[in-house]
Design a protein that fits this description.
A hairpin with a 2-residue loop joins strand 13 and strand 14. The strands form three sheets. Strands 1, 2, 8, 9, 10, 11, 18 and 19 form an eight-stranded mixed beta sheet that branches. Strands 5, 6, 12, 13, 14, 15, 16 and 17 form an eight-stranded mixed beta sheet that branches. The protein has a three-stranded antiparallel beta sheet with strand order 3-7-4. With about 425 residues, it is an alpha+beta fold. It is globular, with a radius of gyration of 21 Å. The chain contains eleven helices and 19 strands. The termini are far apart. The protein folds into three domains: about 220 residues, 3-Layer(bba) Sandwich (FAD/NAD(P)-binding domain); about 100 residues, D-Amino Acid Oxidase, subunit A, domain 2 (D-Amino Acid Oxidase, Chain A, domain 2, 2-Layer Sandwich), CATH 3.30.9; about 60 residues, no CATH class. InterPro entries: FAD-bd, FAD/NAD-bd_sf, PheA/TfdB_FAD_monoxygenase.
C-alpha cells in the first residue's frame, strides 16, 4: 500500500478528525485520515453535543452525518439532588437558548464517527483503519510513517492535523508537553430497556457519594455516567462491577427511587477513567503540524463541552487551510488566541461545576443547598450553565469573576 503525497494527513478518526477530513476533502484538498481502530466500536467516549457544538457541525457540513449516526435531540434537563424532593427538581427547557439549532444532541459516539468517516470518503478523502505505530516528523514538508497489516508506509504532506485524543500521540512527538490534574473519577455504560424514561429528558444530580447522569439516545437506550471521588477508583472494578454500577442508581432523589434506571440492561462495556484536565505547556503546534480536539488540551468532562470544543477547533483550523495558501504557524495564531480564551472560561466554569456537583459530604450538601436557593431567587446565579448551551464567548463576563464564585459558593475557585 502506498500513498501519493497529500495536502493534509489527519491522525485520528474521532469526532474532530473525521469532521476535519470530510470538510477539507469537500473543499478540494487531498486528505489522508489514519485511525488506529480497525472498525469503530463503543469505547465510551463523549456522546453529548451542546447547541453551540451543533452549530459547528453545520458550519463544517457534517450535521447530516451526525443525524445518520444516531444523533437524538434532548429537549429538557432536570437537575435532581438529595437536597430536594424529586417532584421539586429544577427543569430547564434546552431548546430556547439557540432556537435555530434546538436542544443538545445525544448519540452513540462510534456510530457518528462511522457516518462522518463515510461522508469523508464520499468527499474524496483516503481513510486507513487499523493504522499503528504512527510517527510524525514536523517541518516545512512534514511526513508521517505508519504501519498496517500490509507493512510500513510513509506519506509527505503540507500539513498534519493531530487529532488522536487524550493519548496526545502527535503532541508528544512534536515536543508539546501538558500539565494535568484530576478532580474526580468517572464511569460510563450504555444501557437499553429504559422504556419508562422520557426519551427527551436528560438527568444530572448528586446524592451520597456519586454524581449521576442519564443521557437518552432514543428507543429505550441511554448512556449512563457516574462521577465519584478520587481514591475510590476501584469501586466499579471486579466481576460484579456492572451490577454495582446499575444499583448505584437506586437513589431517593430520582423518580421511583431510580428503579427504571437500575433495572436497565447493559448494551456495551463499562469503562472507568480519571477525569483529566490537561493544559498544553507550549502552543499546540509546530511547523507543519497543528493539534485539535482533546489533543490540544481538555477541560473537566463533567462540563460536557469536550465535543463542542473539538468541533470548534476543527472548524477554525479547516477555515485556515481552505481559506488561503498561508499554512505557516503564524496563520493559526487567531485560532490559538480564540482557543486560549475559550478554554480559560471552560476551565473556570468546570471548577464551579465540580465544586457544586462532584464533591461529597455534609459541607458539600450545604453548599449545594445554598447555591440552589440562590439560583431559584436570582437567575443570574445560573450563568455557568450557559457554557453548555451558547458557548463560552457568549456567557456574561461576571460569570467568570471571583466575586461571582464567592457569592455562589461562599469560597473562591
Amino acid at each position: 500500500m502506498t500513498h501519493d503525497d497529500v495536502d493534509v494527513v489527519v491522525i485520528g478518526g474521532g469526532i474532530a478528525g473525521s469532521a476535519s477530513a470530510s470538510n477539507l476533502a469537500a473543499h478540494g484538498l487531498s486528505v489522508l485520515m489514519l485511525e488506529k481502530q480497525k472498525a469503530y466500536t463503543d469505547l465510551v467516549r463523549g456522546e453529548w453535543l451542546a447547541p453551540w457544538g451543533i452549530r459547528e457541525t453545520q458550519l463544517l457540513g457534517v450535521d447530516d452525518a451526525f443525524a445518520a449516526g444516531g444523533a437524538w435531540e434532548i429537549r429538557e434537563w432536570v437537575q435532581w439532588d438529595e437536597t430536594v424532593h424529586p417532584d421539586d427538581a429544577m427543569a430547564v427547557d434546552m431548546t430556547r437558548f439557540l432556537p435555530e439549532v434546538g436542544g443538545p444532541q445525544s448519540f452513540p459516539h462510534w456510530g457518528v464517527c462511522e457516518a462522518v468517516t463515510e461522508q469523508a470518503v464520499r468527499e474524496g478523502a483516503q481513510v486507513v483503519m487499523g493504522a499503528s505505530r504512527i510517527e510524525v516528523t514536523a517541518g516545512p514538508e512534514p511526513s508521517v510513517r505508519y504501519r498496517t497489516s500490509e507493512g510500513t508506509h510513509e506519506v509527505r504532506a503540507r500539513m498534519v492535523l493531530g487529532a488522536s485524543g487524550r493519548a496526545c500521540a502527535v503532541g508528544r512527538q512534536i515536543g508539546v508537553s501538558t500539565s494535568t490534574e484530576v478532580h474526580h473519577w468517572g464511569a460510563g455504560l450504555l444501557v437499553e430497556g429504559l422504556d419508562d424514561w422520557p426519551s427527551d429528558v436528560q438527568a444530572m444530580g448528586t446524592e451520597g457519594d456519586v454524581m449521576f447522569m442519564v443521557f437518552p439516545q432514543g428507543y429505550g437506550r441511554a448512556r449512563l455516567y457516574l462521577n465519584f471521588a478520587t481514591g475510590d477508583q476501584e469501586r466499579y472494578r471486579g466481576p460484579d462491577r456492572v451490577e454495582r454500577f446499575l444499583s448505584a442508581y437506586q437513589l431517593d432523589s430520582l423518580p421511583d427511587g431510580g428503579k427504571a434506571v437500575a433495572s436497565a440492561r447493559p448494551a456495551g462495556p463499562l469503562v472507568v477513567w480519571p477525569s483529566v484536565v490537561s493544559v498544553p505547556d507550549q502552543k499546540p503546534l509546530a511547523e507543519g503540524v497543528v493539534l485539535i480536539g482533546d489533543e490540544a488540551g481538555t477541560s473537566d468532562t463533567v462540563l460536557g463541552t469536550g465535543l463542542s470544543t473539538s468541533l470548534r477547533d476543527a472548524r477554525m483550523v479547516c477555515e485556515v487551510l481552505t481559506g488561503g495558501d498561508d499554512w505557516s504557524p503564524q496563520a493559526f495564531e487567531p485560532f490559538l488566541a480564540e482557543r486560549d480564551a475559550r478554554m480559560e472560561r471552560l476551565h473556570y466554569g468546570a471548577k464551579i461545576m465540580t465544586k457544586l456537583q462532584v464533591e461529597f459530604g455534609p459541607h458539600a450538601v450545604q453548599r449545594r443547598r445554598r447555591a440552589r436557593r440562590l439560583m431559584t431567587e436570582n437567575d443570574a446565579f445560573q450563568v455557568t450553565g450557559l457554557l453548555n448551551m451558547v458557548g463560552p464567548e457568549n456567557v456574561p463576563e461576571f460569570g467568570f469573576s471571583e466575586f461571582f464564585a464567592e457569592r455562589l459558593l461562599r469560597e473562591t475557585v
